[in-house]
Design goal:
The chain has 106 residues and is mostly helical. It has a domain of 71 residues. 54% of the residues lie in helices and 0% in strands. The protein contains five helices and no strands. The protein is globular, with a radius of gyration of 15 Å.
């Protein structure tokens, strides 16, 4: 797992990038699965979700489980512009519930 140090310098850079994207927009390749991390301390999990979701054609999920059900529900919004998808994601507590349950199991 990758540990990413969040420093003051990084936060300034991130905020500047976010302002630039809001002002100028951002081109995202069609078919790329992206979700904004809105749950603190979940960057590794979100990274893994991105890796899995963007390789769904290469991964056999078999029987549905929490993550594949989550990704399955996302299929309908998969090709929406990122900002439209995120509007639904930020208020969706199913991922937080999935993460909380996963932590509780360990």
């Amino acid at each position: 797992m990758l540990l990413f140090p969040v420093t003051e310098k990084y936060e300034k850079f991130r905020m500047k990038e976010e302002e630039t994207i809001k002002a100028k927009g951002q081109e995202v390749k069609s078919g790329v699965y992206f979700m904004k991390q809105t749950i603190s301390n979940a960057c590794g999990t979100i990274g893994l979700i991105h890796a899995i979701a963007n390789n769904r054609d290469k991964i056999d999920f078999g029987k549905p489980f929490g993550l594949s059900q989550r990704l399955g529900r996302s299929v309908a919004t998969f090709y929406l512009p990122t900002e439209k998808y995120l509007q639904g994601t930020e208020n969706d507590s199913s991922l937080k519930k999935f993460l909380d349950e996963s932590v509780a199991m360990n």
